[in-house]
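Run log // design_07
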């Protein structure tokens, strides 16, 4: 067969219209487009997280559509029409996947914008500043993370409150509750609970970082987000260590006050006590002065820490998560 004969056969195949292959290709491509649209708008799934599965599924749909078209009409067409139909179906399906991925990335960016709007109020409650914001899986994970951290801190604070350390600011309370002076070393033992709480918060942060890494399919957005999180968590961890140091110092001071008061060398006078031994007065006044200074420092740090949390929840440009 000459090259001219092969060209004639190709043209004859393209001109063979009894089976309407062009119509079959249009219908098949339209069906694939409809299926793709239904999947994009109805399936709550991020294809950027499963690229191979998305493209593999698209290929299977294309082959299935081609098989139906082949049974109906393409089998009576030439090889050129058959190959062209398969290429067209694959192209339409691939375009659908790419469009789906583009939409998913856009949704992820909207989700991150909402995540930036999470704010922690003065009571430690996370809230969204925009009630109409797009709330996606990343925002829900972010809210869950902040709530878990605040719940852990609340457990720590509840434990500290149960020690009745605040009662030492009103020393005459011990006339009505002498049992508060029975175990002064409980404050020292509580320092281990502070360390446990810090480890729990660090574990929550690590788990949230893993969620972010696994929940963002776009490489650029994932890298930007994780880098911002790492910078913010580094600064927050320093705040946490400083706050825990203040709490431990307060516990040590309370242990000292409890030890002095447990000697019972005092009598109640209004909200205070009058020590019968001058040395006890000098000793406890020195501790109280140190304790008051630590309280002021910890209050200032707590306010800065909440501000930092709010700033670290911002992921954009120069901001930190």
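design_07 sequence
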């Amino acid at each position: 067969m000459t090259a001219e004969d092969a060209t004639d056969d190709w043209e004859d195949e393209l001109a063979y219209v009894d089976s309407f292959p062009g119509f079959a290709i249009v219908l098949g491509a339209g069906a694939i487009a409809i299926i793709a649209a239904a999947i994009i708008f109805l399936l709550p799934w991020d294809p950027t997280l499963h690229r191979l599965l998305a493209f593999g599924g698209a290929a299977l749909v294309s082959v299935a559509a081609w098989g139906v078209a082949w049974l109906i009409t393409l089998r009576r067409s030439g090889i050129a029409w058959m190959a062209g139909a398969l290429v067209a179906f694959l192209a339409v399906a691939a375009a659908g996947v790419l469009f789906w991925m583009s939409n998913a990335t856009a949704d992820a960016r909207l989700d991150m914008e909402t995540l930036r709007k999470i704010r922690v109020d003065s009571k430690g409650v996370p809230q969204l500043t925009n009630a109409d914001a797009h709330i996606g899986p990343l925002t829900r994970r972010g809210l869950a993370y902040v709530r878990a951290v605040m719940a852990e801190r609340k457990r720590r604070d509840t434990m500290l409150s149960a020690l009745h350390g605040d009662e030492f600011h009103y020393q005459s309370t011990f006339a009505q509750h002498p049992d508060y002076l029975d175990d002064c070393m409980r404050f020292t033992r509580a320092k281990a609970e502070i360390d446990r709480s810090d480890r729990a918060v660090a574990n929550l942060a690590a788990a949230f970082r893993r969620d972010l890494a696994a929940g963002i399919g776009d490489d650029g957005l994932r890298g930007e987000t994780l880098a911002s999180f790492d910078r913010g968590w580094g600064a927050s961890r320093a705040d946490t260590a400083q706050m825990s140091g203040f709490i431990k110092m307060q516990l040590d001071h309370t242990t000292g006050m409890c030890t002095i008061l447990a000697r019972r060398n005092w009598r109640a006078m209004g909200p205070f006590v009058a020590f019968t031994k001058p040395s006890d007065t000098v000793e406890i006044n020195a501790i109280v002065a140190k304790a008051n200074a630590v309280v002021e420092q910890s209050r200032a740090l707590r306010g800065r820490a909440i501000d930092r949390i709010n700033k670290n929840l911002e992921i954009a440009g120069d901001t930190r998560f």
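The radius of gyration is 34 Å.
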